[in-house]
Specification:
By secondary structure, the protein is α+β, with helices and mostly antiparallel strands. A hairpin with a 6-residue loop joins strand 4 and strand 5. The structure holds adenosine-5'-triphosphate.
Amino acid sequence: MDNLVALAKRRGFIFQSSEIYGGFNGFFDYGPLGAELKKNIRDCWWSDMVRRRDDVVGIETSIIMHPKVWEASGHVAGFTDPLVDCKVSKQRYRADQLFFAAVIVDGKTAGYVSVLESEKTAAELQAAAENFKRKKAIQGTLAPIVAKDMTEAQPDEIALIPSPATGEPGSLTPPRSFNMMFQTNVGAMTDGSSIAYLRPETAQGMFVDFKNVVDTGRVKLPFGIAQIGKSFRNEITPRNFIFRSREFEQMEMEYFIHEDADWAKCHEEWIAWCEGWLKSIGLPDSHLSRYTHPKEKLAFYSRGTVDIMFKYPFGVQELWGIAARGSYDLTQHANASGKPQEIFDEASKKKFVPHVIEPAVGVDRIFLAVLCAGYAEEDVKDEKGNSEKRTVLRLSPRIAPVKVAVLPLLKNKEQLVGRAQALYKKLQRRYAVFYDEAGAIGRRYRRQDEVGTPWCVTIDFDTIEKPGDTFTLRERDSMSQRRITEAELFALLEEHVY
Ligand code: ATP
């Protein structure tokens, strides 16, 4: 992960926000290559989800909406995370990410240990318990630890659990609800009546505009409304680089179905679609899995939620949530606004509120997943047969920020440079391409490997001296080289960049 973060900075994928002022926790900037990669992820999703489907339309709604939207949706009352404060260090923790265990020796509780959630939470708690026993010179047999998070702590336990910041008990508060919506004021007044929120999800835009789309869009059930846009959450502990940040981008789609439709079948179809899409942009099957939310943990209106999980270096984590939400959202807005959110069914001559399946994914989490899956350090042989290290980003051509690098073999040979420039300009009309004439050719290949460019074309002496106007095509993954014509190069791109 450290190497990946370093590469992301070094090659201009991701910077800390406001870095010259020391950075701003939970906010990130995307550099030149990062902005291209992110745009490609968005564009692929939009093409596949909206343009290439007959049953989904796209919209773009405002980030700040009427505050009543968030009352009706339940966010004002319930969009909270459990928060625990350390009164001594002033650190704040998400209660469900702060784990503790009783240290039980010969059946008696000798004290408590705590750690922050990680891949190795249980092992770290066990080690902390053994350390506790050794330090306090307690004799006897340590019982296996039972890990719990702070939301499960009994009131009399809280004062005994040490703060991870100080290592001492007595400073942690009981968990309380913390609303994650960012507040702002709209207009010149800053009293209670002007309070508004930065949206914490894009989904409500689709629900609130449901009638507008139905009345203007010539859509018929089942159909979807999709949107890509920024969302904001005042996360208590932003972490794992861009995985959990306070400003991020979502790609969400609300798929409306008949109230009597087979929602479980539709849900499963969307889960499979999302998995297929992730593979189409290069995520390997081996890193993907499913997590079905247990029935007892679902919101009362929810029929079922399945998360597509990705194996990040810091653990298996949620990438894409696919929820069956019944008719909850439209019904809430109908009740709160007094405007019915119904559809007329020709067959039964009845009006009803459609049900919805919602696939919701974060662009930044996909971005991180493709970097993690694609990053490799390899030992390879250079032209002289010597071993060297190569860093390579195996990005799918669909999303790679640069599709082709055009390289004249020598920069002081007018004919080579002229042919390379002509090819470069022609490719540039359709694709993101890069022109590089500086340094040894092997070094130039390595620079492109590191940023995930799938192909390099070298304009060499065979190009200008031999018939056929062919170039050397060098592939990133296999590092193999072959000769190719301009027409073949365009055909190759046409096939892989879609
Ligand atoms: P988590 O449990 O990880 O906080 P969530 O279940 O609250 O996520 P949803 O509300 O379902 O997430 O949001 C849909 C998608 O938006 C998530 O699957 C994730 O890809 C993305 N997402 C949510 N919160 C963040 C965040 N703070 N930073 C980056 N992406 C996020």
